[in-house]
Write a structure and sequence with these properties.
single chain; alpha/beta; Rossmann fold; five-stranded parallel β-sheet; 21 helices; 10% strand
Length: 523
C-alpha cells in the first residue's frame, strides 16, 4: 500500500480530518483491523474520541511504542526493571527507573538530564549506530549483554522487533508524524506496507522533538501526484499572528515543505513587550487584566526551569492555573488530582451539612472517609479510626461522632480552612495549602472551573490554544551550545519550536523580553 500524506498547519482541523478518515475506514473494515497511532497517547485518543464509539478497538489506539508493546505480547522492559543494572553498573552508568507512561508519552522536559542510555537510543533512533562515539559503544556492549542475561528488551528494541509480529492491520492512521525518529518511520512504513489504507498526518514546520532524534526528512520526501493533501485554512490563527509566524517559519528557506496556509477571518494582534521573566509581578498584573476580560491565557517558555519563579509567585498570589496538556506535571497543576480537590470539597459539604444545608450529607460515610484520610490523627481522630475506615465494607453504619474528636468537628462546623491546612498529613501539606489559599481568595466553586491560565513549555502545549499567548525568547545554555556546535539543524529546531508557540494564539501574541544573555532574537 502506498502512503497518503496530509499536512496540517496550525489550527487547520487535522484531528477532525483524521477522525473523518477513521469513519470512512470503518465503513469497510472491522474495529480490530483499524489502528490509530500518534507520537503521544493524548493525540491518538483525541482522534479516536472524535469518532463514534466502537468503530476502533481501544487496544489499537496509542503511541508507536504502545502498539509495539502490545504486538510483542507485553514483554519485560529493561527500563522498568533497572534495579539489577544499577547494582552492577550504577557506579559507572546510573540509570533512573522509567515509569509505565514511557510507553505513551515521550520525554518533554528538555531540562531533563541526558544519561548515556538516552544518547545510545538517540543514535539507534536516528539509524546512526555506526557514528556512536567510543564511550557510548562501551556502554552499549554491557547494556546489550545485561539485557540478554536477564531476558529483557528496551524501548528501542521494541521498535526493531515489532514489525516481525504484524498485527492484523487493514488501516493505519498516524498523527504527529513529523516528530517521529527515522527508526519509528521505518516501523510505520513496514506496518503500512501491508495495509489497504495507510495515512500519515503532520506538519514539518511543527517538528519540535529534534532533541529526541526526530528529523524532517520523511515529511519532505516527495510522493506521487495525488498522494498529498494540505489542509490550508486555519480556524485558530488570526491575520496578524499568521503573518508574523509565516515570516518567521520562512527562515527555514528550502528546508521545509512549502504549503498553502490561510489565517482565520480576524485581525489579531502582535505585541512586543518589555516584560521579561525577571518581572513576574508585572507579568501577573497583565495576566489578571486578560483574565478579567474573559480571555484564556498561556504563558510559555522553552524549558520548564524558566517557569519556577513565576509559578512560585502565582502560588503565593493564590492564582488558579494548570496545564491540561501535561497533567503528570504536578508543578504545573497545583490544584492536584481530582481526588485531592474532592477531599477539600468533602470538608466544605460537611461544613454546610452541619449548618443545616443538605443535612443528609452529615451521615454520608464517604464524605467523612475523604476528609479523615488526609487529617492528622493526633487530637483529631479517635483511636483506630483510620483502620476502621480502611476495613469498612460499605454495609456497617459509620457514626462520624464516634470517630472524630471535638477539634475536628468544630473546624468542620466553622468551615475553618486555616485549620484544615495546618492539620493535614505531610503528603497533602503543599497541595492542600495551595488549594485552601485559592478557596479563601475566591470561593469553593473555583475548584470546579477550568483554570483560565495555562503554564508550561512550548513542547507541552502542542495541539493547544489560548486567546492570549505570552512567549519568552530565552533558551537554555545547552541549546545555545548545540547551536554553536551543530549549526543549522539546531537553529532550525528552535525556529520550529517558537513557530509552534506563536501559533497557539487565537487573538493576541505577546513576545516578552529576554531575562538573560542567552535567547533567540525574535524581532
Amino acid at each position: 500500500m502506498k502512503e497518503f500524506r496530509c499536512y496540517g498547519p496550525p489550527g487547520t482541523g487535522k484531528t477532525h480530518w483524521l477522525a473523518t478518515q477513521v469513519e470512512r475506514a470503518a465503513e469497510k473494515y472491522a474495529p480490530e483491523e483499524i489502528f490509530v497511532c500518534s507520537f503521544t497517547k493524548a493525540a491518538a485518543y483525541e482522534i479516536a474520541n472524535r469518532v463514534k464509539k466502537g468503530l476502533v478497538d481501544e487496544k489499537n489506539v496509542g503511541t508507536i511504542h504502545a502498539l509495539c508493546y502490545r504486538a510483542l505480547k507485553r514483554p519485560h522492559i529493561a527500563e522498568l526493571n533497572i534495579k539489577d543494572w544499577n547494582e552492577k553498573y550504577g557506579h559507572i552508568w546510573p540509570i533512573k527507573k522509567e515509569g509505565e507512561n514511557s510507553l505513551d508519552e515521550p520525554e518533554v522536559d528538555i531540562k531533563a538530564e541526558y544519561t548515556i542510555l538516552n544518547e545510545y537510543n538517540l543514535y539507534r533512533g536516528r539509524l546512526e549506530e555506526n557514528r556512536m562515539p567510543p564511550d557510548v559503544k562501551r556502554f552499549a556492549v554491557h547494556w546489550e549483554q545485561w539485557k540478554k542475561q536477564n531476558y529483557l528488551i528496551d524501548f528501542t528494541d521494541m521498535l526493531v522487533k515489532a514489525p516481525r509480529y504484524m498485527p492484523n492491520m487493514k488501516v493505519l492512521l498516524v498523527d504527529e508524524t513529523q516528530d517521529c525518529t527515522p527508526l519509528q518511520f521505518k516501523v510505520l512504513h513496514e506496518w503500512g506496507f501491508f495495509t489497504k489504507m495507510f495515512v500519515v498526518c503532520g506538519d514539518d514546520d511543527q517538528l519540535i522533538y529534534g532533541f529526541a532524534g526526530a528529523r524532517p526528512g520523511e515529511m519532505l520526501s516527495p510522493l506521487p501526484e495525488g498522494m498529498t493533501k494540505v489542509l490550508s485554512q486555519s480556524y485558530r490563527v488570526p491575520r496578524a499572528v499568521h503573518a508574523f509566524s509565516d515570516k518567521w517559519i520562512k527562515k527555514l528557506g528550502n528546508r521545509r515543505f512549502p504549503k498553502e496556509y490561510h489565517p482565520r477571518d480576524a485581525d489579531g494582534e502582535i505585541v512586543k513587550s518589555p516584560i521579561s521573566m525577571n518581572e513576574t509581578d508585572v507579568l501577573i498584573m497583565e495576566i489578571r487584566k486578560d483574565l478579567a476580560a474573559g480571555k484564556k491565557v498561556m504563558v510559555l517558555t522553552t524549558c520548564g526551569y524558566m517557569l519556577e519563579t513565576f509559578i512560585a509567585q502565582l502560588r503565593e498570589a493564590g492564582m488558579v492555573f494548570g496545564n491540561p496538556y501535561r497533567r503528570t506535571r504536578g508543578d504545573w497543576n497545583p490544584l492536584g488530582r481530582k481526588e485531592t480537590k474532592g477531599r477539600v470539597v468533602s470538608f466544605w459539604e460537611l461544613h454546610q451539612a452541619m449548618n443545616g444545608i443538605n443535612p443528609e450529607y452529615l451521615d454520608d460515610p464517604l464524605l467523612w472517609i475523604d476528609l479523615v484520610e488526609m487529617i492528622r490523627t493526633k487530637d483529631n481522630l479517635k483511636h483506630k479510626t483510620k483502620k476502621i475506615l480502611k476495613d469498612w465494607d460499605g454495609e456497617r453504619e459509620l457514626l462520624w461522632h464516634d470517630l472524630t474528636e471535638e477539634k475536628l468537628r468544630l473546624a468542620v462546623l466553622e468551615g475553618n480552612f486555616e485549620w484544615l491546612r495546618k492539620n493535614v498529613i505531610k503528603q497533602y501539606e503543599r497541595q492542600i495549602g495551595y488549594i485552601t489559599d485559592v478557596v479563601l481568595k475566591h470561593d469553593i466553586g473555583i475548584l470546579d472551573k477550568d483554570p483560565g491560565l495555562v503554564v508550561g513549555t512550548i513542547h507541552s502545549v502542542k495541539g493547544g490554544e489560548a486567546d492570549v499567548v505570552y512567549i519568552f525568547p530565552d533558551i537554555s545554555k545547552a541549546a545555545a551550545i548545540e547551536c554553536e556546535t551543530s549549526g543549522r539543524p539546531a537553529i532550525d529546531s528552535l525556529i520550529r519550536t517558537f513557530y509552534v508557540g506563536f501559533t497557539r494564539a487565537r487573538e493576541k501574541l505577546v513576545i516578552g523580553s529576554p531575562s538573560g544573555k542567552i535567547y533567540m532574537d525574535i524581532f
